[in-house]
Amino acid sequence: MPPLAPDLSALAAPGTGAIVLDGVEKWYGTRDRLVHALARTDLSVAEGELVVLLGPSGCGKTTLLRMVGGLIPPTSGTLTVEGTPLWKEGARQDAAVSELGMVFQEANLFPWLTIEDNIALPLELKGVARAERRARAHALMRLVGIAGFETRWPKELSGGMRQRAAIARALSYDPHILLMDEPFGALDAMTRDQMNLELQRIWMETRKTILLVTHSIGEAVFLADRIVLLSPRPGRIDTVVDVPIERPRTLDTQGHPAFQSIAKALRHRLAEIS
Amino acid sequence: MSGIPLDEPAPPRTSGMPGREALLPWLTTPALLFVLVGIWHLYVTETEISAFILPSPASVWTAWLEMLDSPRAWRHTGATIYVTLVGFAWALVVGVGLGVAIGRLRWLEQTLNPFIVATQVIPKVALVPLFVVWFGFGPTSKIIVAAVLAFFPILTNTVLGVKSVDAGHRDVMVSLNATRWQIFRRLELPSSLPYILTGMEVGIVLAIIGAIVGEYLGGNAGLGYMLIARMNAYETDSLFAVIIHMTILGFVFYFGIGALRRFLIPWHASSGR
Ligand SMILES: Nc1ncnc2c1ncn2[C@@H]1O[C@H](COP(=O)(O)OP(=O)(O)OP(=O)(O)O)[C@@H](O)[C@H]1O
Ligand SMILES: [Mg+2]
After folding, report:
1. Which is nearest to A229 in space by CA: A179, A263, A195?
2. Are B177 and A125 an interchain contact pair (Cβ–Cβ within 8 Å)?
3. What is the pTM (predicted TM-score) of this model?
4. For A134-176, how does the pLDDT look when each residue is reduced to its tens digit (9 = 90+)?
5. Among A43, A102, B38, B177, which residue has the fewest nearby CB atoms (within 10 Å)?
6. Domains of chain A and CATH, by start
7. Are B95 and B199 in contact (CB under 8 A)?
8. Ligand 1: residues within 6 Å at CB?
9. CATH code, residues B56-266
10. What is the ipTM for the molecules in this complex?
11. Interface-testing mutation among A125, A150, A172, A174, with chain B (most B C-beta atoms within 10 A)
């Protein structure tokens, strides 16, 4: 496979897609200096697409995802979620945010709530009745494979199970888009493979749009429709790679020639830009 | 908040005696107490020390039983309990309310901090005579002393609790479009509760001290007043009895907060098990 060339055609025209970044830029102001975390970036994620952000540490992956999630405002540029601008005159637009579900590297379950109450928390905040919350939480626990742990405390679950619960919580209010920041980064390799398979299944069943951050090339190639490779100082899009491997992908897919050539090219490119 | 009890599997019993450590205090505490009282008793009988300086355990016991029989003593006990609890309740409301505000608002913290430090370093019992002058010999002045003493541990622990709210948990709430009230009710409050309870544990004990010190100086009610009256009457055995009575009261309050802890935050490591 030839070295990866910047593939600008994949950057769809602004205005289309479930998530659209148009000239989005981020500077952090710390006590004594400014940090250019992300240079002007254009990116569009189509509805139902699974896009993976890959890149070395400090290249602005988390920054980009937190901006899309509405947790921090961009310094300049516009962010659009399902056609709605995320920020309007400095105010976050709740309508846009409610189409987003976030999963973080840590499960961030509330230790004072049982697993089912954690999963139903978003519904509780939205005022959904108790019986309905319950039914929904139980259905989601079956979907993510932790049925039977409804009344347990988070501390009683393994890391992988907690992350499943976090995914269930993000899915509880049925957002169209899932934003995931290294959701399996804290898990061991075996659990991680398992979770990748599960995520693919959940994605194929629910047809969400997913934007996922990872450090792992293998995880990126396994999961992605499209991989966006970021380079650091300042963070910017280096390359966009399509992954035309049929689904459902299995653990054997890792032996697939296309998988290996994409992984190899990414590895080389990453070594150059780190 | 749901506190659904869990059916925990029994831990593997590797050591020969299960639950040994949990049982230990139930044996050692009475045994140690017995030894101490024994030494006390021997000392009194051997040295033939004056009962006015150190009464024997037996006479203290008798004095305490008499106290339990006396309606007047119970009125005094009731007065102290009333002052302690009302003072503590004020401290709790103001301490938690102000603590939450200070923990959230940096400018408020910076504005109030010098005053908080100043009021921390003032020896607060030195203010007791002032409160008596201002609020008279009735329960009000004592309630204020109890409240002032209990207030600071509750305030500082609440501030700490609100500041210690996990940033990741906050992200969850913000990404869910939670309102300010929801963030307080569903995140900040439960997350600060272990801290607040720690403040309450210290605060309740200080509230009793405040009540008793207040009673020393003013009025004619409460265990503090009773203590001074016994001292003036040279009834040292009754004096000891009142001290024992106060200690038991302290234990009851302290364990009351402990019970509250297990009820309110069963999920937290501090709730034991
Ligand atoms: N709150 C902040 N204040 C100041 N600088 C920040 C802040 N957050 C991130 N940065 C800086 O912005 C840059 C990008 O950080 P970011 O966390 O987005 O990287 P990342 O790609 O997620 O890295 P990693 O893979 O290690 O998680 C880094 O140089 C980082 O130091
Ligand atoms: Mg990151």
Report:
1. A263
2. yes
3. 0.78
4. 999 998 898 888 888 888 999 989 888 898 899 889 989 888 9
5. B38
6. 1-99+179-274 (3.40.50.300), 110-174 (no CATH)
7. yes
8. A 28, 30, 35, 37, 55, 57-63, 215, 235
9. 1.10.3720.10
10. 0.85
11. A125
